[in-house]
């Protein structure tokens, strides 16, 4: 098959961005009638507009679905190749948003990322990488993005990006960024300056006064990670405050617990009087639950069942190990106090089934 009719070329000159014309939504832009499409090369109107930088025409084609966004011409190039080769960042965004394959390959293995690198369009390269372009892919001749660079800025960017992906050696100076806080910007003669990043708190260095105030139980609780395991989905847990005399605690909706146990409220209270059951107005519950960091459902869909303006009472039961066992869960504790090289990490399993 002869590919001589394909006009895809690489250039390092930046062409002037064509002027954009406002038009009535749904009506074709005026450039549509003036663009000449080379159908003998398998070119579409979308590819021609992407090559010449006519963003309005590109949007018109994409919104009207006049052309397949991943259509290949006779040489295997897509509209994304054309836009990346010429650095039309806005057009690249539109194409990717409408499903363009960021790793699509021409017949010679050229990818859109290769076109952007070879023509020194750093921002287009950033966008492609952020959208999943693979920087390790090469053309069929074996050339990768690093070997296609023509500027020190592009080469440095790609080298640092690949180093971050593949990991750096321990002595590499680029393994971390240096940041000294705002104190380096202040005159040295000023009194009372404080480097906010100096002496950061850590697990090995605790304030003496805090250690004195903290009792043994609090220190043990802080050094133990708790995991709840179950063969069924766990009930939604809400970290809220139900009394002024107590801080936030973990609570479950009593209705959820009764549904899981298949039990009435009267029977539950009679059989388990030791469990803490409290009532809270629904609007107060909703307000606190919206701010709860333990609520991790998608888009907080759990809260769609509650009414933020209703003051009716909701009954809650405090989440305790005993209640977890009744619901068929097991708790696993990982004690970080036993993380010395000699002792290893001590894991304590407490089954509550």
What is the level-2 CATH architecture name of one domain? Alpha Horseshoe
What helical percentage do the residues reach?
25-40%
The CATH superfamily name of one domain is Ankyrin repeat-containing domain
Indicate the low-confidence ranges by residue numbers: 1-25, 294-299, 338-353
N- and C-termini, Cα separation: 70 Å
Query: What is the average per-residue confidence, as pLDDT, rounded to a whole number?
Result: 76
Number of separate strands: 7
| Spatial arrangement of strands, main beta sheet | 2-3-5-4
CATH class category label of one domain: Mainly Alpha
What is shown here, in short?
With 353 residues, the chain is of the alpha+beta class. The chain has helices at residues 31-34, 45-52, 55-64, 79-86, 89-97, 112-118, 122-130, 152-166, 208-213, 216-222, 254-261, 265-271, 282-290, 321-326; strands at 224-229, 238-240, 249-253, 277-281, 313-318, 330-335, 346-350.
Write the layout of secondary structure elements.
Elements lengths: L30 H4 L10 H8 L2 H10 L14 H8 L2 H9 L14 H7 L3 H9 L21 H15 L41 H6 L2 H7 L1 E6 L8 E3 L8 E5 H8 L3 H7 L5 E5 H9 L22 E6 L2 H6 L3 E6 L10 E5 L3
Antiparallel strand pairs: 1-6, 2-3, 3-5, 4-5, 6-7
Helix pairs in contact: 2-3, 2-4, 3-5, 4-5, 4-6, 6-7
Organism: Cyclopterus lumpus
Main location: nucleus
Subcellular location: Nucleus
């Amino acid at each position: 098959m002869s590919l001589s009719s394909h006009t895809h070329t690489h250039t390092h000159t930046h062409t002037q961005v064509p002027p954009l014309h406002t038009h009535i939504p749904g009506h074709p832009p005026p450039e549509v009638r003036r663009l000449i499409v080379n159908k003998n090369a398998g070119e579409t109107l979308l590819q021609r507009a992407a090559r010449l930088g006519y963003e309005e025409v590109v949007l018109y084609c994409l919104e009207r679905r006049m052309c397949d966004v991943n259509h290949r011409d006779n040489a295997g190039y897509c509209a994304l190749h054309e836009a990346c080769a010429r650095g039309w960042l806005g057009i690249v965004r539109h194409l990717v948003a409408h499903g363009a394959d960021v790793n699509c390959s021409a017949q010679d293995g050229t990818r859109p990322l290769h076109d952007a690198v070879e023509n020194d369009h750093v921002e287009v390269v950033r966008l492609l990488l952020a959208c999943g372009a693979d920087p390790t892919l090469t053309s069929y001749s074996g050339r990768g993005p690093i070997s296609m660079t023509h500027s020190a800025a592009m080469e440095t960017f790609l080298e640092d990006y690949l180093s971050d992906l593949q990991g750096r050696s321990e002595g590499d100076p680029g393994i971390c960024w240096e940041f000294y806080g705002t104190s380096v910007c202040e005159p040295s003669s000023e009194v009372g300056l404080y480097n906010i990043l100096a002496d950061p708190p850590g697990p090995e260095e605790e304030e003496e006064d805090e250690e004195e105030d903290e009792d043994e139980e609090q220190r043990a609780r802080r050094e133990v990670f708790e995991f709840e395991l179950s063969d069924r989905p766990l009930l939604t847990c809400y970290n809220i405050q139900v009394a002024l005399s107590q801080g936030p605690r973990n609570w479950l909706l009593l209705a959820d617990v009764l549904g899981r146990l298949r039990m009435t409220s009267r029977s539950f209270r009679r059989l388990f009087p030791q469990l803490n059951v409290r009532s809270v107005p629904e609007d107060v519950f909703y307000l606190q639950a919206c701010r709860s960091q333990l609520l991790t459902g998608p888009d907080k869909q759990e809260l769609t069942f509650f009414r933020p303006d209703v003051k009716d009472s909701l009954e809650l039961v405090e989440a305790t190990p005993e209640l977890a066992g009744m619901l068929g869960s097991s708790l696993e504790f990982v004690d970080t106090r036993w993380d010395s090289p000699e002792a290893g990490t001590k894991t304590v399993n407490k089954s509550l089934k």
